[in-house]
Recover the amino acids of this structure.
């Protein structure tokens, strides 16, 4: 059993719980354990640093301090959300480069009884761990229900591949690791040119017209490549592409119906877990029709036996006598 | 970091932007005006100024025009410009610096992206008070404050969909050591304002 520290981030608690649930199911099969750091707080997303510097770094550093081991052994902290990953990793790198900033952050942390030595926690994104530490061969060995015939468009978004705090694990412009992972699961991987373009991030809230145009480009490109599903590795990308797909269709007069799933959900399905165990069914654009086409029927979706309707010639049912 | 020795002259707007950007030298003074940034930017078409223009304006000391521009608020943090810049300028980090300076100067209210800081402030308000983000509260409060006419439509269309799929909390989640977090953030705010140098 290989153990990692785990920073789920706010999204995985609820809105992206299918990501968390499918990850835990897959981890058991791969003999990995992800141990949630106690009492972690929000990473600040892309919002805090737009308002202030020291509080934004102190907020992130509290998580790093909670993850840091008492005995000084190197610890690996895994984040499944691209924004959490970048915030944690970037803060750690910038604090290493700027001892004056690290000193101030520690003055702040001391108020909460904590301290952090920059560089003592190695922050990694979940996809890197799956691809590098587990490896394609071990993953392939777990595949019992290959996703044969399912056309999958791998979507990377931004923050796992740019600005390059990922230890060179994939290319910033044309990443391929998720493509290869999907190939190992037996899927038909489609190539489309915008796989590392932006989903708009928080723009769906601030300026919806800009966000809808960015989402349209992604959906159109994947649709042109005849993708059955788009697979993602970030809760923000999933939410934007999934929950706003209907808004894109209304805004542009399009008719995209592309389910957006997490890569761990497709791993779980290929490992033989049921669609329910893989968290299928929580998406706005239902993934079950696409999965049914490759023979992955959900238990709930099997047509229920028709309720017997009594016809006119049936015997009368007994009735309770009227009281009084 | 400095190109010019600020001991012998007053700091320029460019010096100020560089000094307020965290991390190591953001290399802003090295811009060669090639325009790779704007050409790589997914939202450049909606910006008042492309990043290239903005950097020329910073170099020219056009403080008010820069801080009134909607460009930093339309930055989506995709980092395409930053990985493509031949001068390796920390463009995304500089956009965040410009957001902070625009808020401090009060100029963002004049840009066409005047709601954007309100979203960040509302988001962070929940984080500071609970330790975690809270989507329902964020959407409701932000839209009521900034889009009062169709707030309920904006907040409820997404909110109901998430709630029906079991994807939304109706109450915020609170961390255990909230007092500790509040003390840390209070101290950090004090260090931010007292230091002068915000880095």
């Amino acid at each position: 059993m290989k153990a990692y520290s785990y920073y789920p981030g706010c999204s995985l608690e609820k809105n992206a719980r299918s990501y968390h649930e499918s990850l835990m199911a897959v981890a058991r099969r791969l003999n990995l354990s992800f141990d949630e750091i106690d009492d972690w707080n929000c990473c600040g997303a892309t919002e805090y640093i737009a308002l202030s510097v020291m509080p934004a770094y102190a907020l992130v550093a509290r998580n790093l301090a909670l993850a840091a081991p008492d005995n000084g052994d190197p610890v690996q902290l895994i984040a499944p959300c691209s924004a959490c990953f970048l915030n944690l990793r970037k803060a750690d790198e910038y604090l290493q480069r700027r001892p004056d900033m690290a000193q101030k952050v520690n003055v702040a942390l001391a108020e909460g009884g904590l301290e952090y030595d920059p560089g003592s926690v190695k922050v990694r994104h979940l996809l890197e761990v799956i691809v590098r530490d587990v490896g394609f061969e071990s993953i392939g060995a777990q595949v019992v229900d290959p996703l044969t015939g399912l056309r999958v468009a791998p979507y990377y978004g931004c923050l796992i591949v740019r600005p390059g705090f990922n230890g060179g694990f994939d290319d910033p412009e044309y990443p391929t690791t998720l493509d290869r992972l999907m190939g190992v699961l037996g899927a038909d991987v489609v190539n489309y040119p915008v796989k590392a373009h932006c989903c708009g991030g928080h723009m769906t809230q601030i300026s919806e017209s800009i966000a809808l145009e960015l989402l349209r480009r992604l959906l159109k490109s994947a649709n042109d490549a005849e993708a059955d599903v788009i697979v993602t590795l970030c809760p923000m990308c999933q939410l934007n592409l999934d929950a706003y797909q209907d808004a894109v269709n209304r805004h542009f007069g399009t008719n995209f119906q592309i389910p957006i799933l997490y890569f761990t959900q497709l791993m779980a399905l290929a490992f033989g877990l049921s669609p329910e165990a893989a968290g299928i069914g929580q998406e706005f654009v239902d993934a079950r029709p696409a999965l049914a086409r490759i023979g992955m029927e959900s238990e709930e979706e099997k047509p229920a036996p028709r309720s017997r309707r009594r016809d006119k010639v049936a015997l009368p049912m007994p009735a309770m006598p009227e009281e009084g | 970091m400095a190109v010019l020795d600020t001991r012998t002259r007053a700091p320029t707007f460019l010096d100020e932007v560089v000094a307020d950007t965290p991390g190591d030298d953001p290399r802003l003074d090295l811009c060669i005006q090639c325009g790779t940034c704007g050409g790589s930017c997914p939202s450049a078409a909606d910006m008042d100024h492309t990043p290239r223009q903005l950097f020329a304006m910073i170099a020219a000391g056009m403080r008010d025009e820069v801080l009134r521009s909607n460009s930093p608020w339309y930055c989506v943090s995709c980092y395409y410009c930053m990985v493509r810049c031949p001068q390796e300028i920390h463009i995304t980090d500089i956009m965040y610096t410009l957001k902070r300076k625009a808020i401090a100067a009060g100029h963002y209210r004049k840009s066409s992206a005047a709601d954007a800081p309100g979203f960040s402030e509302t988001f962070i308000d929940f984080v500071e008070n609970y330790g975690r983000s809270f989507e329902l509260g964020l959407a409701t409060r932000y839209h009521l404050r900034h889009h009062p006419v169709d707030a309920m439509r904006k907040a409820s269309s997404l909110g109901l969909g998430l709630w029906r799929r079991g994807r939304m909390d109706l109450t915020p989640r609170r961390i255990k050591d909230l007092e500790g977090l509040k003390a840390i953030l209070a101290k950090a705010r004090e260090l931010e304002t007292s230091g002068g140098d915000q880095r």
Q: What stands out?
A: Residues 93 and 155 of chain B are 30 Å apart (CA to CA).
